[in-house]
Amino acid sequence: MLGGCSEKQEANDTLPTAAPETTESLPPVGPAEFPVPDEARTKDAAGAEAFLKYWIDLINRQRSIPDGAPLRDLGPECQNCQRIAQNYDEAAAAGTRYQGGAVSIDDAAKPTLADSEVTISFLASQAAVQRLDSSGAPIDAGQPSATGLSSGISLRWSDNERSWLVESFDLG
């Protein structure tokens, strides 16, 4: 014998929706004052492209401070990222700073996504850059600006961070 409700119940016309993931629900990634944005924290091609843009902005930002820690944190397996981070840390320790050197993305190919990894080839430009001592005097001749730099980045998705991390990065 089957039992049920004796009163007639109307069916609900809508299904409950999942609450969208917000920044508050994502673990913090990147510097507290310059975190990885939500749009760069999706495991898809659009998220990878947004992460590349964030990464370039982060490199530019950290050069002006200088501080390499965020580059090491987001590129723990990336040798070139570690080298750039070390250069920034050495400049800070020596009391020197960089003037110029901003990197910009001129064009980017469609990301090549395979499971939890993505590769993006892009063309970049870099403004002229010079190292200055603590008084603002040039330390060396610096480097001239460069355009059409054939560049690339490989990213790996981190389930723990719920963000992309840099596996390799080449500029020019």
Describe the structure.
The chain has helices at 45-64, 69-74, 79-94; strands at 97-100, 103-108, 112-114, 117-126, 129-132, 146-158, 163-170. With 172 residues, it is of the alpha+beta class. The protein has a single domain (41-170), classed as Roll (Nuclear Transport Factor 2, Chain: A), CATH 3.10.450. The radius of gyration is 23 Å and the shape is globular.
Give a concise summary.
This protein has helices spanning 45-64, 69-74, 79-94, and strands at 97-100, 103-108, 112-114, 117-126, 129-132, 146-158, 163-170. The protein is of the alpha+beta class.
Given the helix and strand composition, which structural class is it? alpha+beta
- Main sheet attributes: strand count, strand direction, barrel closure: 5 strands, antiparallel
Distance between the termini: 76 Å
Helical amount among residues, as a percent range?
10-25%
User: How many independent structural domains?
Assistant: 1
Q: Look up the CATH topology.
A: Nuclear Transport Factor 2, Chain: A
State the CATH class. Answer: Alpha Beta
What is the gyration radius calculated from CA atoms?
A: 23 Å
Element string (H = helix, E = strand): HHHEEEEEEE
Helix segment tally: 3
- Overall shape: it is globular
Total strands: 7
Q: What are the low-pLDDT stretches, counting only 5+ consecutive residues below 50?
A: 1-9, 11-23
CATH architecture: Roll
Kindly report the average pLDDT value: 89
SS strand fraction:
25-35%
Write the layout of secondary structure elements.
Layout: H1 45-64, H2 69-74, H3 79-94, E1 97-100, E2 103-108, E3 112-114, E4 117-126, E5 129-132, E6 146-158, E7 163-170
